[in-house]
Design a protein that fits this description.
Length: 309
């Protein structure tokens, strides 16, 4: 069995939505969102079932899942994506983030933080949400893809990743910022880094073609490779299928790569073979959730904290 990895948490927090729907507040800069003719009640019911099934599959693989309910009373359509508003870090550190869309600011909830304090060893909580009135946003591990081993914060520049907020986070949490400009075929930037990049223990999946500057593109590739990782290039089609939106976790039998069934189906046999040298693929069926422009990685807030007791 592979050794425990700082990159692959053994526990996650998830939020099960009761009134899920794609968020109109975030559609302008999220090219991954999709329109649907399904009735709102049907969408909400399907999303609830998808999260329930995903949590059960993760638990069956030996991942500890803290499942919270979002009853929709505060109008929080993106609550299913908790990784954007908080993150946890080895040594007992927790960060709370400033969110770009006003509706997403309502997703922050004290019961999640209190659970972390009760179940894990939390030393401090650094709250950056006070940056919102100044127009500075940093949407957690959506805006940043963190290499917890080499201490690098890979960040696609966007209105959801303010450079000042990024610098503050990196100073507090001891990461080196590595920011870059991105553009898709329509010239639009990636709204979140975690739709184009996944950093595992022994591999990295990336849509490096999206990085606009060729020199910066090569620098990011080299930085990932110098840590000993196999660098797997994802095509535009694979990025569109959310193949970059994956998260490595530690299960009962070793490391797993949680990703959507659609993402897993888009990978080639060669790409899967590279991943499976160190992690077992764990596809989760979340097509309704993906209508909102995020996938499995967005649904999982990894817990990098030591358990109490």
């Amino acid at each position: 069995m592979p050794q425990p990895s700082a990159q692959a948490p053994a526990a996650v927090a998830m939020v099960r939505p009761h009134r899920f729907h794609p968020n109109p507040d975030t559609a302008a800069d999220n090219a991954f969102q999709s329109q649907t003719a399904q009735a709102p009640e049907a969408i909400a019911r399907l999303a609830h079932a998808e999260v329930t099934a995903a949590a059960a599959r993760l638990q069956a693989a030996g991942v500890r899942v803290h499942l919270f309910e979002d009853l929709g009373e505060r109008d929080t359509p993106d609550a299913v994506f908790p990784n954007n508003w908080f993150s946890t870090h080895a040594g007992g550190h927790v960060a709370i983030y400033p969110m770009f869309a006003e509706s997403r600011r309502r997703e922050r909830r004290t019961d999640v933080i209190e659970m972390l304090k009760a179940e894990y060893r939390v030393q401090d909580v650094i709250d950056y949400s006070g940056l919102e009135p100044d127009g500075m946003f940093l949407e957690g591990t959506g805006a940043m893809v963190l290499d917890h081993i080499a201490r690098v914060a890979y960040t696609a520049q966007s209105n959801r990743a303010d450079p000042v907020a990024l610098e503050r986070f990196c100073t507090h949490f001891n990461y080196e910022p590595m920011a870059f400009a991105t553009a898709d075929a329509q010239g639009l930037p990636c709204y979140h880094t975690n739709v184009m990049l996944c950093v595992g223990t022994d591999f990295a999946l990336g849509g490096f073609h999206l990085i606009r500057d060729p020199a910066r593109r090569q620098a990011v590739r080299e930085r990932l490779a110098e840590s000993g990782r196999a660098v797997i290039e994802l095509s535009a089609q694979q990025i569109g299928a959310f193949a970059g939106n994956a998260l490595e976790l530690t299960g009962a039998q070793g490391r797993v790569l949680a990703l959507s069934a659609r993402a897993a189906a888009s990978l080639s046999a060669e790409q899967k073979a590279v991943i499976e040298r160190s992690a077992t693929l764990l596809p989760l069926d979340v097509p309704t959730i993906e209508l909102a422009g995020g996938s499995v990685r967005c649904m999982l807030a990894g817990i990098h904290l030591a358990r109490r007791g």
